[in-house]
Amino acid sequence: EVMRDADDTCITICNMENFDPMGVHTGDSIVVAPSQTLSDRDYQMLRSAALKIIRALGIEGGCNIQFALDPKSSQYYVIEVNPRVSRSSALASKATGYPIARVAAKIAVGRTLDELMNSVTGQTSAAFEPALDYCVVKIPRWPFDKFRQADRTLGSQMKATGEVMAIDRSFEAALQKAVRSLETDQRDLLWEDPAWKDPERLLDHVRRPNDLRLWALTAALRRGYTPEELSELSGIDPWFTRKLRRIVCLERRITQEPLSDELLWEAKRAGFADRTLSALSGVPVEEIRHRRWQAGFVPVYKMVDTCAAEFEAATPYFYSTYEDEDEASPLPGPKAAVIGSGPIRIGQGIEFDYCSVKAAQALHEAGVAAIMLNNNPETVSTDFDASDRLYVEPLDDESIYEVLRHEAGSENLAALPPVILQFGGQTAINLAQPLARLGVPILGTSDEVIDVAEDRRRFERFLAELGIPQPPGAGVTTLAEAMEAAERIGYPVLVRPSYVLGGRAMEVVHGPEYLERYLITSGAFANGRPVLIDKYLEGKEVEVDAICDGQEVLIPGVMEHIERAGVHSGDSFAVYPGVHLDPSEVDELVEYTTRIALALGAIGLINIQFVIHCGRIHVLEVNPRASRTVPFLSKVTGVPMVPVSTNVLLGRSLREQGYEGGLWPRQPLVAVK
């Protein structure tokens, strides 16, 4: 990543290296910064070439240049030049802390690098090249958990929908943190495909670029293959396969030796999560956590300062590592943590980042310091100036709890800053129960209320007690129960698991053979929670977003879906206001929404989806969080939904903010999503 101004001053911002060899799109490759396998001679050669190219092209601003290098001969080719801010620019900006787009914009209006101040250090100019004293790993987030039958081979056409970034002092630790950040079935490097018991199937995954190749490499190392053999098969540099071997060797030691303090410290420094250590050693997670705390093995937080601590810096941008010196003094209170939404994937996109950033701004305006936790380099929430403090961490209970303990500045649980979960999509909602068990205060809708809404069996009982219609259905936990329930209800049925996002593993099924095949292949029972089998009702689908303060419910608007029920709301066109809704239907929708929100005990945002079948309104589902339609509805109704709900979480009622319960006056426009 290179920058040039009108005075012909050129600097390199960041050099990054793809884990995968040539042939895999850089957006589909694991990326490491700074590059790890280049000799100083090779690095200087490529740096000089990059500066020559940007000068020869006369580019003023940022420029991304990609090279292919033969590791044996130092021969190289220029693959492409992007004379603009690119996906790699966003990663380079977050990896270094250098605000590439901001500086490029100022160069575009005639400023020069030596005139611009580095906003991170506040005392060096933008002409200083960033220096990294840490390792950054980016792993793409692919959609194959949604499309299980899709071709998983990676090539020159990008298939990833998003990415995660992790920072630590070593490659091993950053890699393991990035894997934990992905939020897939592969929760750590221990995961193996059962099909890999066949050595040929395993080696096929090593040879062929695919989304599971990282796990195939560690599986092969466990079976005795050498780093050099795997490097020969995959084309991946031996430096990386040797680092993977170090992780596998540590796994073996944790499995075979007693978990001594020395081994525990070494494992934590290499990025092993408590959950992974528990799986390897057989020691319960709680016991590992308490042993760590007793031994004083807690993470310290280091600053991303662009200058490797050469100059004083005051950036509020931190990552965790297991070392001695801490650089993040706890913020003075009052403060609250906003849990972000992690990588962009199908069903959970930038809408939730909009909510997280607006929430952080509302907290700041209310005099509450906003602490942001997220790991997605593509988002605004991971800009260090979007909140009072940013931690780039995996969004799991261990990482979040350690940040909160650090911010509390003591062992006193009462001093833990509260967390806000409802703006981070399903990622944050799924953390409600694990965090509540650890004693973390949750602002807004409680973990118990979230479980009633998310657990299909409990929700079914809740609506029955309120006397609000819902499609006939049953919560099931086994294949046999599912087959029996579907037969009793009658096909077609809608299959809906608990605690999923973007309709993952949901399906309209028209017969028993399809239901059996679908439940076996989709992983619907994977999280151990009930799956709801309910009657598929054809009709108009309607969606409502609302804000509840415990006393009143404000409904900014009612949206009608153009597609029939059964098409996921995220895939459906929606119209505000609903054009085929009678006033009596709107009144009934408002009444049901108000009753559900108050009876549930929701505080803050809530989203409800209805279907109108044969003139009767049925509730399909309730999401006790911000939905993907919040930005849309906020902009077309003029109700700033996220700031209003954030103030509700802080204890200000709707009336104190100038709003009343009920339906917000309809706007004189039609809006289509």
Automatic annotation (TrEMBL):
<dbReference type="Pfam" id="PF02786">
    <property type="entry name" value="CPSase_L_D2"/>
</dbReference>
<keyword id="KW-0464">Manganese</keyword>
<dbReference type="GO" id="GO:0005524">
    <property type="term" value="F:ATP binding"/>
</dbReference>
<protein>
    <submittedName>
        <fullName>Carbamoyl-phosphate synthase large subunit</fullName>
        <ecNumber>6.3.5.5</ecNumber>
    </submittedName>
</protein>
<keyword id="KW-0028">Amino-acid biosynthesis</keyword>
<dbReference type="InterPro" id="IPR011761">
    <property type="entry name" value="ATP-grasp"/>
</dbReference>
<keyword id="KW-0665">Pyrimidine biosynthesis</keyword>
<dbReference type="GO" id="GO:0005737">
    <property type="term" value="C:cytoplasm"/>
</dbReference>
<dbReference type="InterPro" id="IPR005479">
    <property type="entry name" value="CPAse_ATP-bd"/>
</dbReference>
<keyword id="KW-0547">Nucleotide-binding</keyword>
<feature type="domain" description="ATP-grasp">
    <location>
        <begin position="44"/>
        <end position="109"/>
    </location>
</feature>
<dbReference type="GO" id="GO:0046872">
    <property type="term" value="F:metal ion binding"/>
</dbReference>
<feature type="domain" description="ATP-grasp">
    <location>
        <begin position="460"/>
        <end position="650"/>
    </location>
</feature>
<dbReference type="GO" id="GO:0006221">
    <property type="term" value="P:pyrimidine nucleotide biosynthetic process"/>
</dbReference>
<dbReference type="InterPro" id="IPR016185">
    <property type="entry name" value="PreATP-grasp_dom_sf"/>
</dbReference>
<dbReference type="GO" id="GO:0006526">
    <property type="term" value="P:L-arginine biosynthetic process"/>
</dbReference>
<comment type="pathway">
    <text>Amino-acid biosynthesis; L-arginine biosynthesis; carbamoyl phosphate from bicarbonate: step 1/1.</text>
</comment>
<dbReference type="Pfam" id="PF25596">
    <property type="entry name" value="CPSase_L_D1"/>
</dbReference>
<comment type="similarity">
    <text>Belongs to the CarB family.</text>
</comment>
<keyword id="KW-0436">Ligase</keyword>
<keyword id="KW-0460">Magnesium</keyword>
<dbReference type="InterPro" id="IPR005480">
    <property type="entry name" value="CPSase_lsu_oligo"/>
</dbReference>
<dbReference type="InterPro" id="IPR058047">
    <property type="entry name" value="CPSase_preATP-grasp"/>
</dbReference>
<dbReference type="GO" id="GO:0004088">
    <property type="term" value="F:carbamoyl-phosphate synthase (glutamine-hydrolyzing) activity"/>
</dbReference>
<dbReference type="GO" id="GO:0006541">
    <property type="term" value="P:glutamine metabolic process"/>
</dbReference>
<keyword id="KW-0677">Repeat</keyword>
<keyword id="KW-0479">Metal-binding</keyword>
<keyword id="KW-0067">ATP-binding</keyword>
<dbReference type="InterPro" id="IPR036897">
    <property type="entry name" value="CarbamoylP_synth_lsu_oligo_sf"/>
</dbReference>
<dbReference type="Pfam" id="PF02787">
    <property type="entry name" value="CPSase_L_D3"/>
</dbReference>
<dbReference type="InterPro" id="IPR005483">
    <property type="entry name" value="CPSase_dom"/>
</dbReference>
<keyword id="KW-0055">Arginine biosynthesis</keyword>
<dbReference type="GO" id="GO:0004087">
    <property type="term" value="F:carbamoyl-phosphate synthase (ammonia) activity"/>
</dbReference>
